[in-house]
Amino acid sequence: MVLLVGASGSGKTLLLRRLNYATLVSNSFSSLEEPPLTISTVGTNLMRVLVNKRQEVEVRELGGCMAPIWKNYFNVCDSLMFVIDTSDKAKLSCAFCLLIDILAHPQLQTVPILLILNKIDSPQKLSHSQLNDYIHLDGIVHHCPQRIEILQTSAKDGTGLERVVDWMKHHCA
Ligand SMILES: Nc1nc2c(ncn2[C@@H]2O[C@H](COP(=O)(O)OP(=O)(O)OP(=O)(O)O)[C@@H](O)[C@H]2O)c(=O)[nH]1
Ligand SMILES: [Mg+2]
Fold it and tell me: From the UniProt record, which GO molecular function terms apply (predicted)?
């Protein structure tokens, strides 16, 4: 089981729907339709993603508003994906606090983690190096015991989603 977490509005539900649709229905990450409307996840949202021809992985999104009880799911996860909205400077400090909490949690010390810098299609997006200036992202990653990878995505236009599936293939299957 993969956990998908991140602040409210960072794009988890859209990302998960895209991954589910692209791997199990359309078999393509390009020519995506307009993003479907999403509503804030109050609770959790479980979907399957096909990571290779025969193997499906279950991904459970935990809504941002559920952050105080995310920890109740840490004992059932093999890996974790954390989504950051790169287009919203005002919410970066919230993302930072949530991320630090996750990385420091005793049950997650050996869990592989994918940091997803989402919404890179947005004109307001902050680059990886700007995120380093704001929340010292590479420093955080460098000082953690977990194996952490960072990918940039747009759940809106599909950029980077194949690489997310690739990561899942190696760390979740
Ligand atoms: N421009 C752009 N918008 C995105 C992207 N990903 C998600 N969004 C939009 O961001 C808004 C919030 O997306 P959700 O997927 O509902 O966010 P969430 O992380 O699931 O939020 P919670 O369920 O409240 O925790 C929606 O309007 C999405 O269409 C992206 O890559 N680019
Ligand atoms: Mg959601």
Answer: GTP binding; GTPase activity; metal ion binding
Whole-angstrom distance, CA of residue 82 vs CA of residue 116: 6
Say if ligand 1 is within 6 A of residue 72 CB: no
Q: Which CATH number is 2-171 given? A: 3.40.50.300
> For 96-135, how does the pLDDT look when each residue is reduced to its tens digit (9 = 90+)?
999 999 999 999 999 999 999 999 999 999 999 999 999 9
What pTM does this model have? 0.97
Distance 56 CA to ligand 2 centre (A): 21
Rounded distance between C-alpha atoms, residue 151 and residue 5, angstroms? 15
Question: Two tokens at 97?
Answer: 């606090």
Distance 153 CA to ligand 1 centre (A): 12
